[in-house]
Amino acid sequence: MDAVLPLAARDVPRAQILLASLRRRFEGLGTLFVVAPSAHLDEVERGLGGSEGLRLEFLSDDVVVPEFAVLPGIRGWYKQQLIKLAIAERVASPFYVTLDADVVLTRGVSPERLCPNSRAPCFVIEADLHPGWYARTARLIERPLRQKGIVHNVTPAVLAKAGVGFLIDHFEERWKERRWARGARAWRQRWAHLRFRGRAELAGWRLFLAAGMHWTEYALYYSFLEAYDLFDRFHERVTTCVYDVDRSVWKAGARSFDEWSPKALFDGEGPPYFVVLQSNTQLPAPLIWEKLAGYL
What we know:
Structural class: alpha/beta
Shape: globular
CATH topology: Spore Coat Polysaccharide Biosynthesis Protein SpsA, Chain A
């Protein structure tokens, strides 16, 4: 099972922790696509290139998404969202794992454990935590949302290559037929269509979504599959998330990190399989290594 890791140079120390955990606990991991800004790529490759036991492929983000070079103003988190969808055109496995540098694999996992019924898990939080994500998604997909007042799981997640393929085909058709999103996004999409149509290296679906920012990848992906009756073909709803929601360290809990114990995360079998030590906590990588050293 392939995986993707969008990465900036500043996050290499965190990513080294992630890679150590993958090497030790992910049986059957295929190619890990490490995607970095072109200006960071050499530094990222130097920082991670000695990762024996892992099959790494380093790519510039404007190779995965050439549209970044022609559409100014897309930065950071918004770039990562499109990368996690666009990488589906390169992965070889039916499903792939999306990762961030602040993720750690804590229990043994394999493609069969992640997708025991040949469908990828999807966990839903029954709380209206991010209504804006779904409002923007609804304006993009042209159909009513099947679920409201919820949040789908975020990174790390397991996406279906063919599921993303349906999403790609949908927005490619929209681009060709000039069926733009609602609101201000439509003006940006029209401008991009006039400016860049006919450029062989640019894809209509990526231009549509890049010019249609802002949206979020998981709200868009899962809501699209649900709205077009494709969800059950690729995913099953699960009661336990692939990452430990309760024991992950989110921004609000960073102050209590001294008392945080990882032991329960590594005991027994999953799910959950991963933990998130959220990057916006600003916890330094050496401190995290110190906490996890006995397990990695």
